Amino acid sequence: MEHSTTSEVTFTQHHSDAEFRSRVRKTTILLSVITIIELIIGLVIYKMHKGDHPSEFLIMLFKGVVCILTLAKAFYIVSVFMHLGDEVRNLIMTIIVPLMLFVWFIGAFLWDGGSYRKLRNRYHPVIETPARQGEHEKSDTATHPLD
Amino acid sequence: MAQTAVVQGKQWWAGGKSPFNVEYGKLMMWYFLMSDAFTFGAFLISYGTVRFSANSWPDPNHVFNAFPGAGHSNLPLAFVSLMTFILIISSVTMVLAVHAGHNGDKRGVSKWLIWTIIGGFAFLGCQAWEWTHLYHEGAWWGMNPFPNANGTASSTNFTNFFFTITGFHGFHVFSGVVINIIMLLMTRNNVFEKKGHYLMIEKAGLYWHFVDLVWVFVFLCFYLV
After folding, report:
1. Residue A64, min C-alpha distance to chain B (Å)
2. ipTM for the complex shown
3. What is the distance in angstroms between the Cα of A94 and the nearest Cα belonging to chain B?
4. Which of A102, B17, B25, B198 is 20 to 30 Å apart from B102, CA to CA?
5. Could you give the CA distance from residue B162 to residue B180 in angstroms, rounded to a whole number?
6. Nearest to B176 by CA among B68, B87, B71, B43
7. What is the DSSP secondary structure assignment for residue B58, as one 8-state letter?
8. CATH for B28-224 (3.40.50.300, 1.20.120.80, 1.10.10.10, 3.30.470.10)
9. Which of A35, A130, A145 minimises the CB distance to B156?
10. Distance (Å, rounded) from C-alpha A95 to C-alpha A100?
11. Over the stretch B48-83, which tens digit does the pLDDT of each residue have?
12. CA torsion sign, B85 to B116 to B214 to B161?
């Protein structure tokens, strides 16, 4: 603890080897389990899409769960693997507070996209052409790029 | 240690020491990663905006259903989960390399760095296979053979965003591998041994974990939802 490698570091965190190993093992298992759950949910969504009457609400719910699980994974990667959780509060805040902009960023722009779709469908509906069967030639199939 | 932080807490901004308790290079690496997070965020959010503005969108489970050597069998999510696990495991080996660096263990650092580099190459190989496969199906920038989920003809937005964002991420993986190789050579040449600390490995590690972190979100946005 008294050992500091540069003058900028006032004190250093040192975990014992055993403590470190169990922490890394736990995090690895946790990340793997979350990924497997995400994959299972992904396959459930796939099966639901193939069904006759997919419930829009349930699909949205599952997608929301996957988003939350992804945020949990991101938290563990940043906090344990990148050791941000072990840093002093000042450093944590100087990283996390600017990232709060993402709350506005995501909300505003997804809302914008959804609103654009509604307005276009209402005032300038695009007649969508059905995709041709076995359409695999290398051609630009965009009927209305960025319409 | 927690007590130390509390006792020193009041004096963090009094001058004479870093209020963030890290060396300059590591702090700047954090700020760089934060700005890079905004770059990736802007890409993914613009993808989200365009997808939200479309009435229908290609179903990822129909697009990404191939596996090397599996012919035409329908295996949705299989290959991308392999890629995800490769990246998670290489992140773990990087944590172990950084820890070996804390202990000044030169052999440990180079062993775990080699594993991390192998993981990085494995991921890049997978991505190269996936891109080649999609290209042979007729997908590229400006070309989209996949119809929308509701059966209508799709725009090229899907492939444009897919290749741009996974390409930008793949470029980060590639530069991460290059950085790790440089770290390995420096370790082998006793550069850190002479310096007396392995803090450089920590900074390379931060970058590598960030690449893994971004993949978590790319995986979510393109393959899962």
Report:
1. 9
2. 0.90
3. 9
4. B17
5. 26
6. B87
7. -
8. 1.20.120.80
9. A145
10. 9
11. 999 999 999 998 888 998 898 887 778 888 999 999
12. negative
